[in-house]
Fold these 4 entries.
Entry 1:
Amino acid sequence: MTLNPELEGKAFPPIGFTVDPEHVARFAKAVGEDGSFVPPTFATTGEIAALAQVIADPELGLDFARVVHGEQEYEWRRPLRPGDELSARPRIASVRARGGHEFLTVETEMRDPQGELVVLARNTLIVRGRR
Amino acid sequence: MSTPVQFEDLRVGLEIPSLSKVVTREDVKAYADASGDHNPLHQSDEFARAVGFPGIIAHGMFTMAHLASCLVRWLGDPGRLLRLRVQFRSVVFMGDTIVAGGRVRDLDPERRTATLEVWVTVERDGTTEYAIKRSEAEVRPG
């Protein structure tokens, strides 16, 4: 095990992110949409910003050169709207080893300023075993 | 958008209209910039070759976004997509054609929701592989 299993359950500080119309337009164009609505996967932008601190955590021991994206899940409690100010708070949900590989699952809650959950993201990274 | 689908239109086994596109270097570069995922595996052919690929690969999330587009186009409203869970399989290279699709697996008349099996195939030189497989969406049509 190269990942530190003791970090299971560790929560990280929330990262603020804005559903900025100009940013939405660029994202929509990149994924082939016309920008008339916020693509549901725009949540990825906030999630990636929040995950940066997990990936960089020296206690976790993640070797990013061996990482592939295994699974991804989003639960939307309501659609994202232009102008939304959200906070994305990641938590290490699980650290597992199986079949020579390791699996890191991080859950990120995205909440509005009233504390209502807007999007729940679940990201599983696979750390490929050394040959 | 086309006419939004209604719950009453759904039957178990119904396939939704597929959505295909050719993956271009310009789109993947734009996606890296817009998403904030600057992993060199998606930007540098030299880096990608050093880890055993013939060239850069698309972000898994780029392919997932395409699947979400397919579902939202069918639903007619992004608010009707409640949940999407995917497993990433084959990698996607520049020039590949990705085709998103899905099939109704379960209906819940009380909540007026449906669960779909969803996938994205990748067509390359006459072969078909799965970029996304064994994946699931929960939707609430009109």
Note: The longest helix of chain B spans residues 60-75.
Entry 2:
Amino acid sequence: MALDTAWATDWVRRTAATIDEHRAELVTLDREIGDGDHGENLDRGFRAVLEAVESGTFDTPGAVFKTVATKLISTVGGAAGPLFGTAYLKAAQAAGDATELDADTLVQVLAAARDGVVSRGKAAVGDKTMIDAWTPAVDAATTAAQAGESPERVLEAAADAARSGAEATEPLVARKGRASYLGERAVGHRDPGAQSTAYILRAAVDAA
Amino acid sequence: MSVGILVVSHSAAIASGTVELARQMAADVQLVAAGGTDDGGIGTSFDAITAGIEELASADAVVVLCDLGSAYLTTDTALDFLDDDVRARVHVSDAPVVEGTVAAAVAAQTGGDVDAVLAAARTAAASEADAGGASRPDGDQPGGPVPDTGAGPADDVAASATVQLVNETGLHARPAAEFVKTAARYEAAVRVNGVDAKSLLGIMALALPKGATVSIEATGADAQDAVDALEALVRSGFGE
């Protein structure tokens, strides 16, 4: 399936489903090193997103991303709202008017999303945040696209790298967000934002 | 120039409580609370922040005080959606929300421009720490001894006075604010018991009770006028 508008809306559907399915797990991860609201907030946000996307009509993936962005920003309530919201907003801008994302555009969309999160949250790789999932995803997508892989394969490479990146946050000391107050005590726990990033990108693969 | 203040907190109670606290010392300043999520939970609301900035549309400038991380993230995101001319009027302070809001509100009440308000907020945490040390002298006597600030009563002290607090509540919030407002009217650098007399939180942290000795020192062109005005204010019991 091409990465077109139907894919983008299916991605939203699958994201809402996977976040709902993993809500308890995300709550637990966040309770261990944060304030415990990540799962609830994201679930509430994507329910609102799903409602808006199901009831609207869209001509491009970019238009879908923009709706996701504004809904997340106005409904999530925690840091994930502005962070993911900015990611989708920048993704929408990078996707532009394209009705279908080719491999290169997909890389630009992922990179713009990652850059949006970085500029909003001021986090770097290794800070134990969602950037630790986003940046490996962008790197892997770039490599796959340069190797001439299809958009679907590029997306899959990104999702695989995001999952590994999320796992790799476990030994880290957090330098941003609520977990940074814990110091060494955050070691051994996976960052919930990196984990939800991995789930969201996996949903994109499943929709393709 | 009028400066409005927006308090952004994860908790509606913290935001409205902070506004209430600051309003006690800054009755004429526009203070708006944007706390909690839209459904009344803990979190920050893009819509409430946007509405808060709109509510302060009549102020020449808006200073935003935020609590934990995502309050800043949501505020920054809200600012991105504003028109450039509105955006240019809004300034986000990184001061701690309660201390910063109170200090900012008093600065705004005393006619400070946006830079003065931001500076007051910024020094809020630091001045409290400084004064906290100064207010813990070795003795338990009211007010404690005048701390040695290093420079001590230096040669350039142009005027000074020592006076006892006569009002029942001592130098608590409202009298402290009166004291700061009065000190702020003068060019002179004024210190009270070793603490900057223009720092509300510094003075409040001295926690001077009734009967405590207040030592006022000033340097600068209008030092004598400043000391006279402050001495009269303390002797008057702050109207209590």
Note: Confidence is low (pLDDT under 50) at residues 128-154 of chain B.
Entry 3:
Amino acid sequence: MDEGEGKATASCRVFDLELAAYLEGEEQPELVAHALECSFCYSMLADLERIRSASSELALEEPPRRVWTNIRASLIAERIIRQPEVFWRRWLESWPAWAGLHNPVAVAALGCLMVLGIGLLRVPSVRKSAVDLSDVASAAAAVGPMETSYHAQAASFEPSVKETYQKSLDSLDGEIRECLASVRQEPDNSLAHEYLLAAYQQKANVLQSALNAEGR
Amino acid sequence: MSLEHKLAPKATSETQLIARAQRGDEEAFAALFETHKRRVYSLCLRMTGDVPEAEDLAQEAFLQLFRKIATFRGESAFSTWLHRLVVNVVLMHLRKKGLQQVPLEETDNSQEDAVKREYGDDDRRLLGSIDRLALARAIEQLPPGYRSVFVLHDVEGYEHNEIAQIMNCSVGNSKSQLHKARLKLREALRRERFAAEAHTATDKGR
């Protein structure tokens, strides 16, 4: 039965005052009794209980893929994610700074010295490269299509992600150029071949990582 | 199968994931993100009502989590730790934006927030089943202070004493904000429903 007939009664005003407490779980028998007699207050109570119930069951939203892509790029840049390192780079980084081995030029010079030293010890024959040239050619060939795919997708990357990957790729391209120059100058320099192969493989890893990250 | 048995493998696997993440394992970070991304993003979205902001905040919250993960010792549940961190990130953001979360005055007796007493046929109708999308939209439209308390309490299940602690307000203030938020949501949902019904009636009349 509706006791309102267009006006709020004294009971309705008490209902308004006590409603919040009732919804918080307080016992309010008078409030319930009033709601059963007043359609407006009954409607109010039922609606608020439905809203409360529906709110606890709202569907969870899916974040866009770029959220993880950005997080991953930041974690890599901050070295919180530890990526597998190429053996020779880890070995070189273990040397103290004064040794100058973080400088690619110094590394190349050391490589030349080592090759020369080995060559001197093994005169007259020069050690045959441990790395097969076909391995280097295969690694270089594998990088090509991946690089094409990367450039096709890079436009859709977040700027910070693209920058992170591009820095790595630029650095590796620099290493590849240096190694290629060394190989051209000294075709029998095994260390240069090994470094060249490692640089191509690392570039392939970076490209694969970028392509995987975007596809995830 | 008991609840403990159901939960044990998940807890173990999450513990293992956390240990691997503490060693910098990328797959572990990815798996933790995958497990918690929906809840974190949804919380950010509901509390800000803005998609780009929610993306940025979810990203920031996960980054803070992963930067600190080495310090996680398992005293509390990982999800509780993460959840509290997300709430802090969002509230910090809202404060920086200058949005006062909860008015300093304990009560606000403005007419706007009072229960509307406009009797009529429409007012007596119940909402019936609630359209979840309409509810989500209505939550987004709530004023920021009401929205934060409502989301924390009715969506995320926080208690008023926890909300009061997080938002630096009194328990009474939290309760008051919540009630006003529910009333505002009801009005918004009813308006939307009546507008939709009027639209349908107009279409039928043509």
Note: Chain B has two domains: 10-96, 111-205.
Entry 4:
Amino acid sequence: MGYATTTVRAIAAPALSILAALVIGGIFIAWAGENPLSVYRLVVAESLFERTGWRDTLSRSTPLILIGLGLAVGFKASVWNIGAEGQFVAGAAAAIAVLGTVDLPSVIAIALGIVLGALGGAAWAAIAAMLITRYEVNDVIATLLLAFAAVPLLNWVARGPLKDPESFLPQTRQVGSGELPDIPWLDTHIGIIFALLAVAAMAWVMRATRFGYLVRAHGANRNAVYANESRRSSITVGILLIGGSFAGIAGYVVLAGEQLRVSGGTATGFGFTAIIVAILGRNNPIGVLASAVGLSALLVGAEAAQRQTGLSVTLMQAVQALIVICVVTGNALAERRGRTSARKSPA
Amino acid sequence: MSENSPTSRQIGAPAIQIVGVSRQFGEVRALNRVDLDIHRGEVLAVLGENGAGKTTLMRILGGLDQPTEGEVLRDGEPFAVSSPREAVAHGIALVHQHFALVPTMTAAETILLFRSDRARRCDRAAAAEQLRSLADEIGFDVDLERPVGEQSVGARQRLELLRALDSDPDVLLLDEPTAVLTDEEASAMLDVVRALAHDQNRAVVLITHRLREVIAAADRVVVLRAGDVVSPAAAVGERTPESLAAEMVGADVPAVRRQSAERGESVFAMNGVDAGQLRDATLTLHQGEIIGVAGVDGNGQVELELAIAGLLSPTAGHITLGDTELIGLHPRARIEAGLAYLPSDRFARALVGPMRCDENMVLGRTPWRLKGHSSDAADRMRRWTVKGHIGHTAESLSGGNAQKLVAAREFSDSAQMVLAAQPTRGLDPGAAQRLRQELIDFASHGGCVLWISADIDELLDSVDRLFVAFSGQLMGPYDRPFDRTRIGLAMAGAS
């Protein structure tokens, strides 16, 4: 099997899958009494060509890119961290716990916020890592259940220990000088720049470093890694801590760029949507970037379409889900074709 | 059975006639105009190196593949099947090299799975009874009531054969049926195979790497090399393992004989190691020394291998290489301490199948920053004559080339010791011989080798001292000159 056909397959399969999803989704839109083509045109126009549209697309995709990068590393290694939501809120809570009480120069506060977010997310992931490596709890169960534990804890924190004493609402103080400034002319905060830097860094790490090698090898044959490269526990722990750090940084970025305070409403499901982002992006950093922006644009456009046509945004969420299912199926089919044609070479 | 000479049994039409059959895979010709007659009442051995086309030929007869040219005649009639089930309906059964049984089901249940739909619906107790009498008839010692997963490798191989016989085939295709068996189990299996041909008048085709078995069990032998028939099927008669090996690889393969070596100081020591069923394992390896561990599979060899490789934590004892205690060591530290490792399951422990050859070449040795390892990898692959490109995946390599890739990596470091577990399993004779020579050369250059193998012949030829693993204990050591009978008895547990 030549390199060229592999590449064609890698691009053609998802493209055809998305097309199929849009066709199926179009049937539902038509059923709801709208012209699918004009709805899609509206979605694209609103999300990508309107100033408010692409601004929202960028700010919404920022946490998805950050979390998705960390999850992609895990999924590539077959370590199933699906509890990024918990690591996300832990990062936000850790950042506000410190930034809400001190007054530092902005640059230092932002740097500190990133570090605190990473530490908070990693700490939450470390609990899962311990359960998985020491007590052999299934990784899916450990990470997911800890996510469900994190959200009520966040509510409690916002009502209790970190509550803003001057507010009647169950919310923390503001991030103060840790707030992220806007990019000039773009009126969106600089979080997207962090995200793009993270994409570039992870693309390099995965391709050119020992860590990336171990992640790929662990995903393909973990026993060979344990026999030659690394202990069983250290690689799993490392991967979970990296996923937790990225999710925690995303928590800080959403806090410091948009919400400014932590409340029960901080957990908005980015951690779960990022699972889809990583899968659609085929666990590849550049793919994560593309799928995060694509999914964000779809929802931003759908919200605009709801305002203008009355078409329910839930229908577009269904289209989003269809895209995921079609792309995953399409990739699986393409891989199977690849395997059968590879097997046709002499045994 | 000498009154039934092979020639007298060949009267009548052949059960299968292969006429000018070719099979092309892209650029590669796996079979090139092969002509072959398969007769009832005889065992026909098909011999050849890996990639010679033996398995392709079996797959075509078994309905798993189609020829690109030529035809196959079944009792004189043109015959083409496109599935194993159709082949069975034509009275042809294939016994695979890899087990196709379900581990959690009992032997009887799993054999019934392979029956055609109608036959499967019959009474289970009656079917089990049928199988039992079939097993008794051919003198097979099998336990049909125990789950397959709990049975030994040898028992599973017998069940595989029983499964194939369940359809009462006229033609039986056996792909390396003795590869996982010990000497004794293998000769019992071959007795059954001969009886199936001679007493029950079936046509039996036997693929084997063990040349001695061809001599011992086959009536006729055909030798394939790179898809061509090198020696047309002819009586085994006076042929020797050496002459067959020469036909197979196209040149004389010099038998590897270990010259007596000078022992240096001690390098590796195990003291009172308990791990799994392994009890009180104690041995010492010196510079330039090769120690073999023989034994029937499942007597503690795997535990011995895994404990030294650091993949199984011993509950007692010490393992040292040089001044380093190996127990509890990080895998990289073990490699740095000088332990080269050829695992018995190379695709599970030594290679990452979907990754490229050059990437596999740095497994266990990756620098922080990956770069520029390709040219070095290409060099080493050339030196070890690994057939394959550095950009191809490890899983695309044949068994022999995969093992060479592992060896090229492991031998390249400043290794003091090689732990070689079943190093030649699944390799064709040429590749196996080259690997044995490399292990011996490694010792000649001052290294030491712990060689675990189920192939007693290769150990007797190559090692300085020998232990026999039995029921978790290391019996011996036995020194040169080896007493084959005594060692055989130790393997059977009567020391």
Note: Residues 1-10 of chain B have pLDDT under 50 and may be disordered.
